[in-house]
Amino acid sequence: xxxxxxxxxxxxxxxxxxxxxxxxxxxxxxxxxxxxxxxxxxxxxxxxxxxxxxxxxxxxxxxxxxxxxxxxxxxxxxxxxxxxxxxxxxxxxxxxxxxxxxxxxxxxxxxxxxxxxxxxxxxxxxxxxxxxxxxxxxxxxxxxxxxxxxxxxxxxxxxxxxxxxxxxxxxxxxxxxxxxxxxxxxxxxxxxxxxxxxxxxxxxxxxxxxxxxxxxxxxxxxxxxxxxxxxxxxxxxxxxxxxxxxxxxxxxxxxxxxxxxxxxxxxxxxxxxxxxxxxxxxxxxxxxxxxxxxxxxxxxxxxxxxxxxxxxxxxxxxxxxxxxxxxxxxxxxxxxxxxxxxxxxxxxxxxxxxxxxxxxxxxxxxxxxxxxxxxxxxxxxxxxxxxxxxxxxxxxxxxxxxxxxxxxxxxxxxxxxxxxxxxxxxxxxxxxx
Length: 433
Prior knowledge:
Strand content: 15-25%
Radius of gyration: 27 Å
CATH class of the domain at 240-430: Alpha Beta
């Protein structure tokens, strides 16, 4: 019997929610077929089946968030018996031999050998320690690990039951680290169980949510919306923002686009290309705050904000300083298409060093953006609009675009931001593409 694991989607992803299953129990599956999709804190991703055979058992239904590397399903032969303890399997006869490994929706068990616990139970060292801390009798805990071994998650569940509080093991750990009393947290998981997101929301909430107005509708927060709220608050309150705005004459950019139709470069592509050039000249802007130091990153990894129905995601164009304009256009289009169809992988939206957010398509003249950490700056791009300007004493009508740089004052001084924006303006106005 082959165990299907919730894949690890990068170092920043610890948990993910299964959105839907593309196959049902009893269906024939092939290795490489899309089997289920998951919602991480940034995107919905399809996951492939890692074995061929029959989908014998789905262990984690849609709508449930579990840690990465959790066993979520079993694939085997049509007549192959399910492991002991899994729904649909016949009880195994008593024997002196070691019990068969039991697949569960809990995270992979530690490799350490089981330790005899009270009442003859088997438990991992971590479970024994947690049981002592929580005052849980291991002999009364049903183990979900291989051979009935008691895992730390089983102890946490038992402790929660004793306190009449239902919470996932991850939520319990987060609550303990954050000093959140689970008794005051409302659970949104199955059966009212408290999830990690519930704990984080309770920690961030300044006060209890007001009662809904008559006729008002409330929508549950998606994982993406929760993480957007959390990270934007952290960025706004941790990084001292300040803003520098310039007006750019985009006539040369318009003429360049009209003269070069071999590939379709958008105005946003031209801004990205010019930004990559300017960042190479101003490495102080392509930098990160590290607490006790400032890190200047050698590569320009441009984050491009993309609006989705569920929220905002920032796919990353890596090593943008090495790309031609045509290559940058192709990379931007590919990432935007993957974002819109939920095909982004973790490597596609991590590692950014500078972000560009463009609301010009929505008719916005100018706005200020919140820094997308770990960046130290973000560029807000407004629409191109014909305006009356004075040039060499004469009155002209020119296509003007406003750019606003939000900077972290811990990393970037005002004079540096001003010089960077001046260089960016010059590159766009000179048509240096």
